[in-house]
Amino acid sequence: MLEADLVNNINHYLEMKGIRYSNELRMGIGISDITLNFGANRRLKPLDDYFLVSILAYVNKKRKVTFFDIQEMFLLGLEKVKQYVFTLANLGLVVIKNTLVKIVKNIFSVNLGTTISIEAKLKDWKGACLQAQRYLCFSDYSYVALPSETIKNVDLSIFQESGIGLLSIKGKNIEEILPAKESVSCDYILKYISTSKVIEKNVDVEKRHLRANVFTSYILT
Fold it and tell me: Which residues form the domain of 62?
């Protein structure tokens, strides 16, 4: 078995359960094998750039700013600032009048639901646990997925101390060996970006298609 086979088996499980997910989500601090989401607003604006969301958050907080204010805050060149601001304007989130930028729509009260990341490994459960901890910066919960025959080698205390959950994979079946603990370091902007990417890749997956699954306890009601 290859790690790709393990990931494909998990993907199959998620598809059968009607769960929205994305593979190899690149977040700068790591690439999670699988990131899934429950309950996020399906009309989430597709913002996948950290500076783009950060600038929007800054404008939203100040209500109106100048291009110069943004330059000073983010240490960006004027052309780059204009590029970001015009992108936000095209999305209908800000308006521009001369050099003044005003907020139009507040996206920071939108429901992001629950985001869960999974790191899949065949044997290196220690390395996987360390990687999974990084994903807590943009996920509410994080798991390591291992083949069922590898589970016997795992020191569960390491997972319990770090708050990382553990999944046993046998074929296309998943068993939760240890539940994950909620992240205390999940950053809203990073979560928005990761959730945005998952929603964008799952426009045809609807909540009513959900089936009972090992992650059901994390579904927001």
Answer: 50-103
State whether 161 and 212 are in the same domain: yes
The DSSP secondary-structure symbol of 218 reads G
pLDDT in tens, 35-65: 999 989 888 888 888 999 999 999 999 999 9
What single-letter amino acid sits at 22? S
By CB atoms closer than 10 A (0-12, 13-18, 19+), residue 150 is: middle
Q: How far apart are CA 35 and CA 113, in angstroms?
A: 13
Are residues 175 and 123 both part of a single domain?
yes
Q: pLDDT (tens digit, 9 = 90+) per residue, 138-155?
A: 999 999 999 999 999 999
149 and 202 share a domain?
yes
Q: Give me 45's structure tokens.
A: 């604006």
d(CA 65, CA 211): 46
* Interacting residues of 109 by C-beta distance below 8 A, sequence separation 6+: none
Domain count, the chain: 2
Q: Sign of the C-alpha dihedral, residues 128, 134, 138, 140?
A: positive
118/65 same-domain check = no
The CA-based dihedral angle spanning residues 4, 7, 13, 17, taken in that order and rounded to the nearest 10 degrees: -130
pTM: 0.89
